[in-house]
Design a protein that fits this description.
This protein is α+β, with helices and mostly antiparallel strands. Among the domains are: 30-108, Immunoglobulins (Immunoglobulin-like, Sandwich), CATH 2.60.40.10; 116-212, Immunoglobulins (Immunoglobulin-like, Sandwich). It contains two helices and 21 strands. Strand 17 and strand 18 (202-203) form a beta hairpin. The model is unreliable at 4-27 and 274-279 (pLDDT under 50). Interacts with the ninth PDZ domain of MPDZ. Interacts with the first PDZ domain of PARD3. The association between PARD3 and PARD6B probably disrupts this interaction. Interacts with ITGAL (via I-domain). Interacts with CD151. One of its GO terms (cellular component) is plasma membrane. Pfam families: ig, Ig_3.
């Protein structure tokens, strides 16, 4: 008889041996890919690998007419940017007792096109100003870099002395550049660059933006015009009233009323005024 520890070790070895024997009897069911992510330029053929083991009679569904199925994967005759995505290789036996799958990410590489920008020609100091940059062709999607007067704008304006007086937020993914608030030092020529790691980076046209003060002169002029129009209105009302356009009576008629009462009887020698007139 061995010690308790030796008995436990023997039991453990028997358990492990049983697992190994079961694995050999049933077979190891696996599906895998040698390239879980594939990058290929547009209009080129590509193969997405899908290898399997442990299946006695595997079967897979076809993808499209332009895709050829092979026991080791699928082959595209020519890929387009619309083919970018994640593909799943599913393998199962006819009886459905065993099943496995693996995912392969396909990225069709397309260089960026020339980006377009939306930049105001002028913006008021102290207000919020939004500049945008975008392009639609790049795959994977492009990231954007902004330039002011030919100088790269850092993500954090306070990190460099050249932009320490600016207050902006720059989003490299969306291409949006927001000044909040705009300062006088933000006047300049702005452009952006799109790049996605494939092909040549593309740069937009440069557009100048002027940071201007609030136009007090225009406000004063507007107030003066309003006062002049009000004065003309008052004069027009006075003139119409002076010409009698607001008199409700008609010409040729009198507005006076006369009341006459007959004298009453009186005794001789007594004189009293009994008639009255109201004018």
């Amino acid at each position: 008889m061995g010690t308790k520890a030796q008995v436990e070790r023997k039991l453990l070895c028997l358990f492990i041996l049983a697992i190994l024997l079961c694995s050999l009897a049933l077979g190891s069911v696996t599906v895998h890919s040698s390239e879980p992510e594939v990058r290929i330029p547009e209009n080129n053929p590509v193969k997405l690998s899908c290898a399997y083991s442990g299946f006695s009679s595997p079967r897979t569904p076809s993808y499209e007419d332009r895709v050829t199925f092979l026991p080791t994967g699928i082959t595209f005759k020519s890929v387009t940017r619309e083919d970018t995505g994640t593909y799943t290789c599913m393998v199962s036996e006819e009886g459905g007792n065993s099943y496995g799958e693996v995912k392969v990410k396909l990225i069709v590489l397309v260089p960026p096109s020339k980006p377009t920008v939306n930049i105001p020609s002028s913006a008021t100091i102290g207000n919020r100003a939004v500049l945008t940059c975008s392009e639609q062709d790049g795959s994977p999607p492009s990231e954007y870099t902004w330039f002011k007067d030919g100088i790269v704008m850092p993500t954090n304006p306070k990190s460099t002395r050249a932009f320490s007086n600016s207050s902006y937020v720059l989003n490299p993914t969306t291409g949006e550049l927001v000044f909040d608030p705009l300062s006088a030092s933000d006047t300049g020529e702005y452009s952006c660059e799109a790049r996605n790691g494939y092909g040549t980076p593309m740069t937009s046209n440069a557009v100048r933006m002027e940071a201007v003060e609030r136009n007090v002169g225009v406000i004063v002029a507007a107030v003066l015009v309003t006062l002049i129009l009000l004065a003309i209105l008052v004069f027009g009302i006075w003139f119409a009233y002076s010409r009698g356009h607001f008199d409700r009576t008609k010409k040729g008629t009198s507005s006076k009323k006369v009341i006459y009462s007959q004298p009453s009887a009186r005794s001789e020698g007594e004189f009293k005024q009994t008639s009255s007139f109201l004018v």
